[in-house]
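Sat 14:20. Reprocessing the chain from the morning session after the first attempt stalled halfway. Input below, unchanged.
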Amino acid sequence: MAKDLDDRWYFNVDTGQAERGPAKRGFFESRLGPYDTREDAERGLAELHERNERMDEEDRRWEEGG
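Finished this time. Tokens:
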């Protein structure tokens, strides 16, 4: 059974904080996740940047024919 969404962690990019629980309806979602732990959520933005850097490097290699 899927973990209860009220118990999941998210990283709020607006506040720079990890927070627990679902987003409020009607509000623009500016959170990454869900994550299982607070620690994972706190690394959310760093992981996003790391993935983007890897993808950018793969794009450069592809464009160069490598």
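The first helix runs from residue 38 to 42.
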